[in-house]
# Entry
Amino acid sequence: ELRKDLAGFYGVKPQNLLVDNGSVSLIYLIPRALGLKKALIPVPAFSEYEKAARLAGGEVRFLKPKGNIVGTEQCSVPTDLDLDVDNLIRGLKGRDSLYLANPNNPTSLSVDKKDIIRIIKEAKKRGVILILDEVFMEFSDSPRENTMINQAVKSENLIILRSMTKFFALAGLRLGAAIAHPKVIVRLKKYQPPWPVNSLAVSAAREFLKDKKYIRDSYKLIQQEKAFLYSELSAFKALEVWRPSANFILCQTNSPPRVGGVRGVGLRDRLALKGILIRDCSNFRGLDTSFFRVAVRARKENLKLLSSLKEVL
# Structure
């Protein structure tokens, strides 16, 4: 029943869907089920891609963004974190899999649709499986227009990952889905353990999918508050801020600690004392302690974050 409901929500057939205990479970399932051993991962990226690829006995190659990230505690400079598409396509040689998130975690940046289509074509030409993580797509400006779901259902080289736990706020219940060609779904299902999804998650998800008002209101709220918070954060002289696509914003403190600046970790600790938790991004490959991420929340909470940042910075 859930597969049918999700199929209607995503505009696909039930045979194009595999439901699992969160999208992370699928990230670990895919390389094992498909025998993938040579992964390419553009960084910074969600750390579970690398862990899943290595756990399946694979070797990982990383691709840096367009700009050079300064990984030093003394000084950080604004950098271009956009995906280097030309370099990525060159990097597909000798690889069997590519992990790519759109929007990206932790940068909240999106890849242009024309670039994604180009990557899909080049990956197929080289026999590379593209695992396209779209778990934050529902928060983007045009989720229906930017998704690659219509490509995934007809290609054996593309797997889309989606999640109910983000947009529908069901994190603790754990529910994710893979959308792919029916042959790929059958292969993945063979390696999936029995009873991967609990009945509480199924029931909750089916009810949420019916709630069209929640979907409309949540989308409207996120778009409104995302624009507001980005604008307000960009006004801080002590911060570099990246324009977000998802429901979080990547920031970088641009003053070194030796001249009185507050780095990401120190900022995290000082805000925690005020009852605010930000995401220190120093454990993302390619980022250092000057980077942090904040969630887009309701206006009252966003104002509290901004007020506390003014005090600390």
